Amino acid sequence: MIEEVFSIDLPVGEQFRIQRCRYTPQSGETKKRISIVSGIHGDELEGQYVCFLLGEWLRSNPEKIKATIDIYPAINSLGIDSITRSVPFYDVDLNRIFPGSKNDFLPAQIADGVVSAMSGSEIAIDIHSSNIFLREIPQVRIAKSQADTLVPLANKLNIDFVWVHDAVTVLESTFAHAMNTLGTKTLVVEMGVGMRLSKAYGHQLLDGILNLMACEGFLEIAPLEVRMPIQSEVGEVAYLNASCPGLFVPAIEHCQMIQKGDIVGEIVDPLSGQTLDEVIAPIGGILFTLRAYPIVYEGSLVGRIFGENG
Amino acid sequence: MKRIEILNFKSPNRAPLKVEGFLFGEESYGTTIAIVGSMSGDYINQLYVASGLVDYLRQKEEEGKITGKILVIPAINTYALNMGETFWPLDKTDINMMFPGYVQGETTQRIAAKLFESLQGYDYGIILEGRRDQGMCLPYVKLIQSGYEDIDSARDLGMRFIHFRPYSPIETVMLQYNWQLWGTKACSVVFGKNGTIDRLSSGEVHGALVRLMSKRGILDTSVFEGYASNIIEPDDITVLKAQCAGIFDSLVGCGVVVQKGEVLGRITDALSGEKLENITAPIDGVVTCQYANPLIFQNSIAFRIASAITKR
Predict the structure, then answer these.
(1) CATH number of A2-228: 3.90.550.10, 3.40.50.1970, 3.30.565.10, 3.40.630.10?
(2) Which positions 286-305 of A are in contact with B (Cβ < 8 Å)?
């Protein structure tokens, strides 16, 4: 059932709206609920494909549904339809104003509407695509303070990497933090790259979501066989930042195992024809982030490597 | 006056990003102040005030009136100013969300780090800010309660209102919060409408900056007294939202004293022209902010009214 959970009139004959598709058991009442969320950033589309795949599966298997499953493919619907990461008109990152407020400007009201709609869900999965600059392997990012609760859930999602990071105050303005504070166990998935689809990643995460829902009692199916993600706590993450401006040309593919000292890419100058710098791996490990947008300034992130200790 | 380079940042194809500061009284052992202008590409009022202040101080220096040390940085994000963008043009990050900065981090973190380094050690710090929404407002002082804030120096600006409130999580990565933590008595002056120059507001802010410098012994000049600032906390503000979307017509200006029941604005249907709504004041007070775009969204904040003010 498609429902509108938030609507505001735009100035000229249109509404900003957030819709969800709700799936419920064929028989019996349930208060158990899970929310699958994407499109908080309007330039991140990987989650849209996962929402489609999940909806397609649920439509084909209605008898397997044991609890309420809500799918929200497009939170920042105005942004998604106009290739705009932030809330259009206001130029505000929606994922920096949660939990929002009814008495603040429009983006804060949208955030408040999102929280109201999902409040009461037992679990939420917030699917992001990195941004247009970086390509990421499927991963879940979790604040250290929530690791005990969320890492066991993340391990069921068929992802490649679980990244537990230190708490950062600014991230208290995110959807995930707001929902976790309200008692909804919320996982943030990052995978692929902005403005594009990675079909294989979509299918990989679909299997993970089905597995999680099977394990947590939302679906009456046997758990799937899923991969065990690498855990960030057993190693270290090395950041590769550009040392100078130019055009970044990768030397290796994303998601490769590399050795310390390997060349990850070059920064070149199209005007002079010179190679300005080589980006060298400071540690060995898996190249789990790789720059997808080639123009770099000094400091631009070009890659991240996870290396296991020892 | 000494024109100094705060940072010089190369671009792949554009001319380098050069951020410049104007330093007065470099040799002074007196009180020091730094004033930061436009950090966003649409903070034109802030650029206007800061550059006007540089010109004013240059004249005062010739008259031998500078008694402290003053640094004015009129523009940080010149790349955005030069192309009608708001944020860093490549990745759309906000420099004022990157403090205290990180020299090994991403581009705007590095810019913030270099800027922050140049702002260390000043006694007072003023950040000229525009709006973060589609509004316009009466010039006011924004002072967040970091635990290190200094309300007395904020009062010396002599502005009508000081908005004194707890900080939100995102403000922990903004300049004011970090500057306060690093020992500078910092506050923000918020004014105008983004992308425009409001000469009245700009003149008021210029006067406030000169007043503060005079009262704190940085500038030897006579000034008129300003307001005995009203301290406004969030509960003192009444928010008036538009019930309807459409064409918004404001009937009052910021700073106007209004009475309960007074019509402040009207909304008409953008297609049919039908009169949809009169927005009326529910209380007596002063209009501090208003929506500043002719097209308004449903539930947008049309006006903010300050009322029930008690001096704290």
Answers:
(1) 3.40.630.10
(2) 295-301
Tokens matching residue B101? 């900065």
Contact A297 B12 (CB under 8 A): yes
For the entire predicted model, the pTM comes to 0.92
Tell me the per-residue pLDDT of B43-97, one tens digit each, with 9 for 90 and over.
Answer: 999 999 999 999 999 999 999 999 999 999 999 999 999 999 999 999 999 999 9
Whether B17 and B131 map to the same domain: the answer is yes
- Nearest residue of chain A to residue B134 (CA atoms): A90
Say if the Cβ atoms of A9 and B110 lie within 8 Å.
Answer: no
For residue A207, the tally of other CB atoms under 10 A from its CB is: 16
**Chain B hits for A172, Cβ within 8 Å:** 169
Q: Nearest Cα to A91, choosing from B38, B86, B135? A: B86
Could you tell me which chain A residue has the CA closest to the CA of B243? A9
Q: Residues B199-242: pLDDT tens digits? A: 999 999 999 999 999 999 999 999 999 999 999 988 899 999 99
Instruction: Let me know whether B177 and B44 are in one domain.
Output: yes
Return the H-helix or E-strand segment holding A238: strand A235-241
Give the dihedral sign, CA A109/B232/B168/B154. Answer: positive
B123 shares its domain with B227: yes
ipTM of the prediction: 0.89
How does pLDDT run across A182-219, given as a tens digit for each residue? 999 999 999 999 999 999 999 999 999 999 999 999 99
Instruction: For residue A13, give the nearest of B244, B271, B298 by CB distance.
Output: B271
Please tell me the predicted confidence (pLDDT) of residue B311: 46
CATH architecture for the domain at A234-308: Beta Barrel (2.40)
- Say which of B87, B134, B173 has its CB closest to residue A170: B173
Q: Would residue B133 count as lying in a domain?
A: yes
Q: Which pair of structure tokens corresponds to residue B19?
A: 């951020």
Q: How far apart are CA B58 and CA B23, in angstroms?
A: 10
**Tokens describing residue A114:** 């999102």
Name the residue among A90, A244, A295 with its Cβ closest to that of B133: A90
Domain boundaries defined on chain A: 2-228, 234-308
Which residue in A9, A90, A171 is closest to B245 by CB distance? A9
Best mutation target, B300, B303, B304, to test chain A (most A CBs within 10 A): B300
Q: What number of other Cβ atoms are within 10 A of residue A84's Cβ?
A: 17
Q: How far is CA A37 from CA A34, A48, A82, in A?
A: 10, 9, 19
Residues B92 and B221 in one domain: yes
* B107 and B188 share one domain: yes
Identify whether residues B277 and B154 lie together within a single domain.
no
Q: Does A86 touch chain B (CB under 8 A)?
A: yes
Please report where in the chains the tokens 């429009």 appear, as a residue: A106
A143 Cα to chain B: minimum distance (Å) = 15
